[in-house]
Design a protein that fits this description.
Blueprint lengths: L13 E3 L5 E3 L2 H11 L4 E6 L4 E2 L8 E2 L1 E3 H9 L7 H13 L4 E6 L5 H7 L6 E4 L1
Helix pairs in contact: 1-3, 2-3
Length: 129
């Protein structure tokens, strides 16, 4: 309905309790829940890294494609670190709930989204159910 009227919804990742205390909610968690509720085919998360690495700060270890099982193993075995842990946990949850794939790409790289979606090699990491 909003899109039909020319509005683009912007959803804040802030929440508040009954006393008005404001909380920062993980944006990946919110985006994942919206994707599930919309029965989206895929979710694309923009980050400041090119995707998922087996070893942080080693670009040659970037993984181009992962299965759901692979993603679960990265979290379980401690290979995922820092901010990638909640990102992967959100992706694991949304894949279990019906979304077919998720991509993590670098939102600061020019044309990263186009290259990820329209080329075989992509630019980031695609995780599939």
């Amino acid at each position: 309905m909003l899109l039909d009227q020319g509005y683009l919804p912007v959803i804040s990742s802030l929440g508040a309790d009954d006393e008005g205390m404001v909380f920062n909610i993980n944006a990946d968690t919110i985006a994942s829940e919206i994707a599930v509720q919309l029965e989206a085919e895929k979710l694309i998360l923009l980050s400041d890294v090119d995707g998922i690495y087996l070893r942080a700060d080693e670009p040659e270890t970037k993984l181009s494609r992962l299965s759901l099982d692979d993603a679960e193993s990265l979290v379980r075995e401690g290979a995922a670190t820092g901010g990638m842990i909640p990102k992967l946990q959100s992706i694991i949850d949304l894949l279990r709930r019906g979304v077919k794939s998720a991509h993590i790409i670098n939102g600061t790289s020019r044309n990263a989204l186009l290259a990820e979606v329209f080329t075989d090699q992509g630019t980031g990491t695609m995780i599939v159910a």
